[in-house]
Amino acid sequence: MDAFESNLPKEIVPDPLHTSFNPRREEYAVSGKILRQRSVFDLDKEGFSPLHAAAAAGQVDTVRAFLGIDKKLCRIKGRDGKTPLHAATMRGKTDVIREIVSSCVDCLEDETVQGQTALHLAVLHQEIEAVIAIVELITETNQIEVLYKKDEQGNTALHLATWRKNRQVIEVLVQAIPEESRTFEVNAMNKMGLSALDLLVMFPSEAGDREVHAKLIETGAQRGRDIGTTNVERTTSTSTCQMESQSHKDLVKYFTFKKHRDSPSEARSALLVVASLVATATFQASLTPPGGTWQDSYVPDVSKNITSVNTTTNQQARTAGQSIMGTFNGVAFTLFVFFNTIGFSVSLSMLNILTLGFPLRFQLQVCMMAMYFSHNTAMISIAPDHVKLYCILITSILPATTPSLMRLLEKTIGMLSRFFHSMLQKIC
């Protein structure tokens, strides 16, 4: 069951919409006062609009009033790409579902970032009344193709209903499919090469399997291996490698930041943690550079005229507290100072931007300035005399120009990336 569950959305995760909206605390009634304070198109910190909250709470009159202002509101996408119809569907608010669809039929086709329609979500959340209402609306509006839509893993609503072992939902879905195309659609394959009947056989449960199996067989359902397809090679090593590669791509895609899925507050928190770690690591490196520092001072006695090539490191001129690496390799030490200063400066710049509007921000800026001067003092102090001037210039000029350099570098890399991408397309 793990192989299939890993390709399903984690619907059991607490819904931010559920936790962020309390109809007793904040009624989204359409009054001039409220609408002046907040635009109906604005998303809150959790990534949802007032219409999302009203739809999830089942406030039909409020939803109707919002849609009276602008019917485009029914297609506004919030977190995870969910529309108000999706929010109402996940709570089983059938009256709201009908109200929204009556204002905008096309919203039945809207998909989340996982490629799920309202029908997918109703099946996943086992809202049977919502499934029935949506299927009826699909039939009434002659949008049968919505029944066949697949999510990003290639699962149709029937796949999900079979995985959930929900016989009533399966009956509703199968009955809605036109008889002339029923056999074909019931045997649709997902990206793993599994049909609905495959899911039933592969993931057995203690109850309900027999009735579901009988219903699927009655409609002409088959196992994937029995369906005449040449697109899926399920038993070869090549297929296994392809599936592993696809899983890796899906994993990277899952953890990639998505604007409509991930809230800005969570992204800012993550960036604050990363920037703090970089600032800590680079500041620590300025105190303990690679190779350490000399623990004592030594000045060779010139009168002894030591010219032997076998002079040991203990006879090298040095000053206590200066970098050992810098004493013997000034170029390497200068590069270390350069890149360490870049990392430290950029992390402080990120912290400064991410804490805009924070309480006690002035005190925080004082702390960052103190860290900045401490870092510069440490780097200059451990620099040997023959590279000290370079280190002073780097630690003084580079932090001041970091924001401008970052913007210039980002723009340059973007231009080069687009150039090489266009060249690659021409070559292909």
Automatic annotation (TrEMBL):
<dbReference type="InterPro" id="IPR036770">
    <property type="entry name" value="Ankyrin_rpt-contain_sf"/>
</dbReference>
<keyword id="KW-0472">Membrane</keyword>
<dbReference type="Pfam" id="PF13962">
    <property type="entry name" value="PGG"/>
</dbReference>
<dbReference type="GO" id="GO:0005886">
    <property type="term" value="C:plasma membrane"/>
</dbReference>
<keyword id="KW-0812">Transmembrane</keyword>
<feature type="transmembrane region" description="Helical">
    <location>
        <begin position="331"/>
        <end position="354"/>
    </location>
</feature>
<feature type="domain" description="PGG">
    <location>
        <begin position="266"/>
        <end position="375"/>
    </location>
</feature>
<protein>
    <recommendedName>
        <fullName>PGG domain-containing protein</fullName>
    </recommendedName>
</protein>
<keyword id="KW-0677">Repeat</keyword>
<dbReference type="InterPro" id="IPR026961">
    <property type="entry name" value="PGG_dom"/>
</dbReference>
<feature type="repeat" description="ANK">
    <location>
        <begin position="80"/>
        <end position="106"/>
    </location>
</feature>
<keyword id="KW-0040">ANK repeat</keyword>
<dbReference type="Pfam" id="PF12796">
    <property type="entry name" value="Ank_2"/>
</dbReference>
<feature type="repeat" description="ANK">
    <location>
        <begin position="153"/>
        <end position="175"/>
    </location>
</feature>
<dbReference type="InterPro" id="IPR002110">
    <property type="entry name" value="Ankyrin_rpt"/>
</dbReference>
<feature type="repeat" description="ANK">
    <location>
        <begin position="46"/>
        <end position="67"/>
    </location>
</feature>
<keyword id="KW-1133">Transmembrane helix</keyword>
<dbReference type="Pfam" id="PF00023">
    <property type="entry name" value="Ank"/>
</dbReference>
